Fold:
Amino acid sequence: MQQYSGKSIFKGIAIGKIYFYSKGEQQVKRHKIEDAAGEITRYNNAKEQAINELTKLYEKALKEVGEGNAEIFNVHIMMLEDEDYNDSVNNIVENQSMNAEYAVARTADNFYEMFSNMEDEYFKARAFDIKDISERVISILNGASTGSDIGNEPVIIVANDLAPSETVQMDKDKLLAFVTELGSSNSHTAILARTMNIPALIGVKIEESWNGKMAIVDGYTGTFYIDPEEEMLNEYKAKKEEEENSRKLLQDLKGKENVTLSGQKINIYANIGNVTDLAAVLQNDASGIGLFRSEFLYLESDHLPTEEEQFQVYKQVAETMAGKKVIIRTLDIGADKQVDYLNLGKEDNPAMGYRAIRICLNEPEIFKTQLRAILRASAFGNISIMFPMIISVNEVLQIKKIVAEVKAELDTVGIEYGEVELGIMIETPAAAIISDLLAKEVDFFSIGTNDLTQYTLAIDRQNAKLDPIYDAHHEAVLRLIQMVVDNAHKEGIWAGICGELGADLSLTKRFLEMGLDELSVSPTFVLPVRKEVRETK
Ligand code: PEP
Ligand code: MG
Structure:
């Protein structure tokens, strides 16, 4: 047995086989071949396998995200069957006597160049699809695992690092745990692990040779055991059962009020990234959705989601929550959440760069498309809109103007929308410090402690090295939270927390004392926080 220590980002126990996940980007070796016909057969077989994988992905996406979003996999299949693409690969193999991997990579580069130079936005966007399908074929030719397809058996994913876009594409039913070498506890992948309720460790020096081995992840102690002995395996099976039992006990709290022993009430809402998280929200009895990270729709797509695609998702969330509050946060892309099709470009300091509301105010069409979709969906439930990364009153005024324009456009064409509250995230020190002024302009505040801590302490939340000093309990952060709550209440609006700190049970009492009106946490934390609230005097 081997034993490794890491840092736990979600407590829990997982027992199962290791799946070594490697990045999509493949190394392509270039070498001469003698048997061109054999090489072309090898290519054709890889292409067939890629088409089979894409067909399966289409079916999965159809179930999880609907026909509109699934369609992209059909487009990928068509591209792989494209005559020009295949002619180019065959030609490089036959006439230059080059290996299939190189022929595919070369073809991908040429087609990428061609598509990205086209005027038409649709074709421009296809340039990335060409890269994507080609990498799939190359990884099959290389014998590596492809994309985020992790097979059919539930597994413990071991990876160097995981981007949020890779994590969201994985089949949640097949994920027992994550173990990564890089990553930090406040990264979005870590947040996803918590939302999905799966144990996760970071900072473990990983090895590819572990692939397929039996392992145990202990998210309580941050330990990773490989090839555990029978005795240890049984011990952990028993612990896991105990864990299940205490989870079941929490279920008794369903339907109970979030009220302290002295009668103080607080709302406990849930954070989600997609419609697939709704089941967990209902199972854990959250009273609403305090943060819908809408950017995950953009991350899961290979093109800017259309108004209709977004509308369908927001409508589904609003309808499922059946009149309970649903706070949709507008696009918070940038920093660690990147999509190729937006061509945001490399920045020296992306966390402080072109992201979130800055993009939306600079590209009003992207913003208006999303606002139209949200407003249309608001006719089907109780939707509020929240804006990320605010630093000034002026931004809020611009936002309100744009929202009014969109409403006027909908009025002109007779499309209905509901009463929508407008709120902002307080996640920059600037917003916290001027929260007295901002409170006059909005209906609510939701404090994003993940970014607020990052910017207050000048500690990159993504930097694993700084994890030990990323201290969300820092007095500076807590004072800012108190200041925001007080300023909100002076103007008669409510204030909540939707950052990870909201689920920190050691602070629940303090948050109640501070007068917070709401805590929005990963669905799995709703009942533990309720328990803590109910036991507080
Ligand atoms: C936050 O910054 O606390 C927050 C909730 O937003 P995100 O984690 O998505 O940046
Ligand atoms: Mg944030």
About this structure: Residues 191, 291, 293, 332, 427, 448-451, 498-499 surround phosphoenolpyruvate (ligand 1) (CB under 6 Å).
